[in-house]
Request: fold
Amino acid sequence: MATASPKPARQLVMVFDLNKCLGCQSCSIACKTLWTDAPGMEAMWWNIVNTMPGEGTPRDVFSHGGGYRDGQPVPGVFPPLAQFGEAWDFDHEATFGSNGKAAFHPLQHDGTSPEWGPNWDEDMGGGVYPHSYFFYLQQICANCSKPACLEACPRTALYRREEDGIILIDEERCHGYRFCAEACPYKRIYFNSNRAIAQKCISCYPRLEAGVAPACVRQCPGRVRHVDYMENKEGHAYKLVHKWKVALPLRPDFGTEPNVFYVPPLAPYAFNEAGEFDETRSRIPEGYLEQMFGPGVEQALATIQAEREKSARGEPSELMDILIARDWNDLLGPFTENPADLDRQPRKG
Amino acid sequence: MTAKTAAKVTAQRVTASSKELLVPGSKAWKDVAETAVALSPTPLDAQPSAYVRASWADRPHGKTGTVNVSAVVADDALFIRLRWETADPRQSISDNNVYADACAVLFPADGKGAELATMGDEKRPVQAWHWRAGTALPFVVTATGLGTTERAKAHPVSVGAAWEGGSWSVAFRRDLGGKGVPLAAGASVPIGLAVWQGANNERAGIKSHTPDWLTLELPK
Reply:
C-alpha cells in the first residue's frame, strides 16, 4: 500500500561536510564490519564514498530512475550486481606461497577478472590537468521524508519509525520484490541473494537507542559527519541547514526530501589560458554543483567563503566553529555514549 | 491455439506413489486428463502501489496466456500439476534484476468461498501454495487482501518442478487431512491459479491469473 506514513515526532538528520572528506573509507569499513558481514551481504556497501565527478555506485548512479517528478513516481531500474561491483575472491594461498610468481589478482565468482567495483574510478575525477578537480561524495540511506522506497512497496514491508523518522525494511514482511530498490533514486537499497530480501542502511538505530552515534559518524577521522535531530535548534544540523543554509540535499530534483545534507566543496580558482588563476571562476565548472545540490549552492559557497575569511582575520565565526568541530563530541548530537562503556551482552556465535 | 476457459478441474483417483507424482513429467501423470485454463493479466489499476502502477503502465504484464492443470488424489494426498510455456526460463533469482519463474494455486482458506479479486479479506481469507523456481519447498501464504500475504513458518505442502522443452511443469502435494484448506473427499473447492514469467520481471501482483474461481472436484 502506498501508506502515507505519519510525520515522525522527531527527524534524525545528518550533515556531511564535503570540504573535509579524505575518501579514507573508514565509514564504509565501519558499516561493513558491523552490519554487512553475513552470507548474502558480501557485495553490500550500505555506506559508500565515491569520487565525483565519477560514475558512483552503481555505475552512472543517478541515471537509473526512481524518485518523483511533479509528485508522481518515476519508474526506475535496479542495476545488476556487476554494476555495483561483486565482492571479489582472492586466492591468498596461491599468492603468498608463490615466492612472487603468482599475482594477487581479484576474481569474480565466475572466475573472470572484474571490470568494475565500488570505487573503481577513485580519484579519477574530472577535467584535464591542470584543470582537474574532484571531491568525495558519501552516501547512506537518507531517510527521506517522501520515501520513494516505502511508498513503492505493495506489501508495506518498509516503515518509518515514529520516534525518529528512520526508514526500515521489515525483513519478515519483505518478499524480495525489489520495487523499493527500483524506486530509490540514489540506489541505496541492496538485495540479499541468500535470503531473497532487500536490505539497506538502518541508520545504526540499535546504537542510537543506546545513545551511541552511527558507526560511520563515530569512526570518521576527518570530523566530516554531524548527526542530530532537526528539531534541536541549538544543534549543528539545524544550524547548518536552516540558519546558515550551507547544508544542502543531494539531487533535490528527485523529490524525495532526503534527510542527509551536504556542505558543498569550495574549490581552488580555475586557471585562465595564460596559466594564471582566474579569481572569477571556480575550478569546479559552473553548474556542476548546482546540478548536484540544487539552487542554494551558490549562496552556500559564498557564505562558507565569507565566514572563512572572517576567521582568517581573527573574527569569531559560529559557522567555522561548527564545521571545524574542535570538540569531536559536538558532531554527535545527543549520541555521545562510547560503545566501549556500554554494559552489553557479548555477541553469540 | 485457442484455450477454452474451464470452470472445472476434476481430480482423478490414481494409484501411484508420492515420489513419482512429485516428478511432474513422470509416467504417473501421462494418462491424467489435463484442462487448459485461460489466464489474463491482473488489473494494473488494482495494484496497491502507485510506483508499481506507474512502472508497469507502458509495458505488458501477465504474459502467460494459458496454464494446463491436472489433479489427482493418491497416497491420501491431493496433487495439483500446472504446466505452462516459458520459452526463456528463470531458474532462480540469480541477480539483482532477475526474477524467478513462479506459479501458485489459491484457495479460500475455509475451502468454501472468498473474494478472488482482492485475494480475500479479513472475514474470508485465502490461502495459496506458491512455488518459486530455485526453492526446494513452496511457500504457503495466507492473505486477507492485496499485499497482505503472510508466509507460514511450517506447512505440509511439497513440490516438484522441472523445465523441459520450453515448458515448466510443477506438481504440488498436500495430505488430504493436512493442515490448511479443508480438502475432503467429494468436495468442490474453489481454486484460482497464477503464473509469473520471470523473464518479464513478473513478481508480486504483476502476474497472469484466473480472473474467476475455478472449481476443483475431489473424488468421493
User: Anything to note?
Assistant: The first strand of chain A starts at residue 12 and ends at 17. The mean pLDDT of chain A is 95. The two ends of chain A are 38 Å apart (CA to CA).
